[in-house]
TrEMBL record:
Occurrences of domain Phosphoribulokinase/uridine kinase (ranges): 6-190
InterPro entries tied to this protein: P-loop_NTPase, PRK/URK, Uridine_kinase-like
One Pfam family from the record: PRK
Protein name (database record): uridine/cytidine kinase
SUPFAM superfamilies per record: P-loop containing nucleoside triphosphate hydrolases
PANTHER family associated with the record: URIDINE KINASE
Signal peptide: none
Gene designation per UniProt: udk_1
Regions that span the bilayer: none
Family matches, as Gene3D superfamilies: P-loop containing nucleotide triphosphate hydrolases (3.40.50.300)
Pathway terms, separated by semicolons: Pyrimidine metabolism; UMP biosynthesis via salvage pathway; UMP from uridine: step 1/1
Species of the source: Persicobacter diffluens
Keywords: Kinase, Nucleotide-binding, Transferase
UniProt GO MF annotations: ATP binding; uridine kinase activity
Length: 206
């Protein structure tokens, strides 16, 4: 197998990374691409840091086992298989599955801190930043967290102001300029998606 190409994708919370990734993945077969997300490396709820009000903050680098994430990406780059337990967003009603990740010509890594953490950043060949205006991200976050995570508006706004926005300003936005491709997603990411797919298809077919 040819040397895998590692694509790193980041952006602020609710910038549209998941939807973008779903569309990107659908353009390739399971043998051509492997997606391994930072989400699967969150520490257990009882190990999460708390803010000054005693509220757990899942939006900090120390909320995630970034060292293990980097080691697993290295394994995939070396052609090996990675196995780990699915992260269920601390939902006690979901039994986590055991996930298998097979190396592929394209390895996609995504998460808030994949540009910030130096060990992760050094493993990335192509850096993609999904960008959206703040008011749009906030609207998406309110809808998502209320529908998918059953959080009230007050809780969503608190986390956004105290956790999400400070994390974006400190750990995500400063690395936007290092991206090879910045994809605006206020309304649609279609053009940026097509550009990236075209480039990756050439790598797979080479």
């Amino acid at each position: 197998m040819k040397k895998p190409l590692v694509i790193g994708i980041t952006g602020g919370s609710a910038s549209g990374k998941t939807t973008f990734l779903n569309n990107l993945m659908s353009a390739f077969s399971a043998e051509e691409v492997c997606l391994i997300s930072q989400d699967n490396y969150y520490l257990p709820k009882e190990e999460q840091p708390v803010d000054d009000e005693g509220v757990q903050n899942f939006d900090l680098p120390e909320s995630v086992n970034l060292q293990a994430y980097a080691k697993d990406i290295e394994k995939l780059k070396g052609g090996r298989t990675v196995q780990l337990k699915e992260y269920t967003f601390n939902n006690p009603n979901i039994t986590p599955r055991l996930l298998n990740f097979e190396s592929a010509p394209i390895i996609i890594v995504e998460g808030l801190f994949v540009f910030y953490d130096q060990n992760l950043s050094d493993l990335i060949d192509i850096r993609v930043f999904i960008d959206a205006q703040e008011h749009i991200k906030l609207k998406r976050r309110i809808i998502r967290d209320s529908e998918e995570r059953n959080e009230g508006l007050e809780e969503v706004l608190y986390r956004y102001e105290k956790h999400v926005q400070p994390t974006y300003d400190k750990y995500i936005a400063p690395f936007k300029s290092s991206a090879h491709l910045i994809i605006p997603n206020n309304t649609t990411f279609d053009v940026g998606l097509e550009i990236l797919i075209s480039h990756l298809k050439k790598h797979v077919q080479a």
